[in-house]
Amino acid sequence: MDIAAHLHPRIAWPHFRLSRFARRCVNAGGLVLLAGVMIGIWFVGQNWPFRYRKIHPLLEDVFGSQIHIAHYRRNYFPHPGFIATGLTLRPRTGPGEHSIGTIGTLYVQANWIDIFCLRDRLRLVEATGMHIILPPPGSRQAQQDYPSGSGSSFTGPTAVIEQLFIHASTLEIQRKNGKRLTFPVHWLRVWDLHRGAPMTFAVNMDNPLPYGHLLASGSFGPLNPRAIQETPVSGWFKFEDVKLSDVGELKGILDSTGSFHGQLGAIDATAQAKVRGFAVKNGNEIPVSGSIQCTVNGMNGDVVYHAMEARTGSSLVQATGSTAGTPGKATRLDLVVRQGRAEEILRPFIRKPVPIAGAAALHAHVDLDPTQPDHGFLDRLHVTGAFDIPAEEVTKPDLRKSLSAFSLRAQDKKVPDSVKDLPGPAAGAISSLQGPVTIEKGIARTPDLRFEVPGAQARLSGTFNFRTTAVHLTGKLTTHADLSDITSGFKSVLLEAIDPLFRHHRKHGAVIPVALTGTTDHYKVTQNFGHKK
What we know:
Elements: H1 3-7, H2 20-47, H3 52-63, E1 66-75, E2 81-90, E3 101-109, H4 112-116, E4 121-122, E5 124-134, H5 140-145, E6 160-174, E7 180-193, E8 199-208, E9 211-220, E10 232-243, E11 250-263, E12 266-280, E13 286-296, E14 303-312, E15 315-324, E16 330-341, H6 342-346, E17 356-357, E18 359-368, H7 377-380, E19 381-394, H8 397-410, E20 430-440, E21 443-453, E22 456-465, E23 471-479, H9 490-496, E24 510-519, E25 522-526
């Protein structure tokens, strides 16, 4: 009985019967297919790229180190490859007695078509939980682990790695004081890693000192093992939420973006930056924006600053110089302010209200010594220069009134009952201030400070302390009017008799020893003969 016809009587199901020849062809094809599979298995087995003896030297080429693997397991589907755990890295050129790093898990994938075509190519190399430890730069350990010329031994892997992915990892650089700089690497991707070829990269990591978040991408290579400093490099970066307080007595949060290109030994870089709440120690916080054009030596970290600009308010500070040295980096800068404001320049250095305001110009040479544990920013700062404030205005109302009244008396003019009613420049206590200055250990010194108000000029020498705002200046004040004319009441009558003693061969006027002392809370100008220089 035909079951198919019974189920569907209207359909006549055909009966297929293979001829003897056809059956022989099918059997022969099956044997050929089976033989092909067996040959393929034998071929893959003979050329299987993930045997340990092949993978081990490949990994040492990729990471530039000797490697010990605790556990190793092959994978076949869906992608051929392997998983290795418990990897330990040791110096490749050094004695190799200690670990320079570990890798928690290493996962490697390839493509079947590359295996059958005998292409030396990997689809993915993924490392999780990598922890690399480098000895202090310049130390004996560093010289043993990475002797001179050892970089030429790393030329990159012979296999093409389409993507190297490192994440949840850490780079630690030991310091001579026993501490470590820890760089958390959220992820690092490298594409087309291959000996003798350029590669592209992208990184997301944190910088420890000063702390900040770094994003960067670009291209690197091809690596020149005989002259690593000539290796091409280019890309862009974003450095955000940088805590300036990590590098001394500075305050503020820096955000910057920029680009770079050139060779590893001379990378030309440009950047734009903004600082929120910039201040030195307990100074007034101000916003600062700026730009930089520089050349960075990627081999030792030295930097040459071709042009730097920092702006706050209407004041523009321009600088050139360098940061260089081993093991510590010292900074040398030449600064110039052509059209600035005295109050804007001084504000970040002074906690209390700035005592003066007005247009200012200055030029200076700045030396900033390398960072030391017991030395803050002001201890490391050395400045030699000069400034000119052609139209200074005293900001404290009481002192401004006193100077205004003094200026009128020095010109032998009558002082109104209310200083607020003083007309013209005297009402604002307009004066000029100029002279050379040096700054050492937070103290500014001047041998010849020239101060002028209408009717009087002073030449002073002394110090100003940026930490306490204390001033101690002594010198001589020359007035157009006689000594008795710049005082009032009974004191004027007494001084009239000794006016000739202060004229110094002048028909009128006086030359008076004076001292400027106190802090921003209470500055005092006195006719005191007892002040020491």
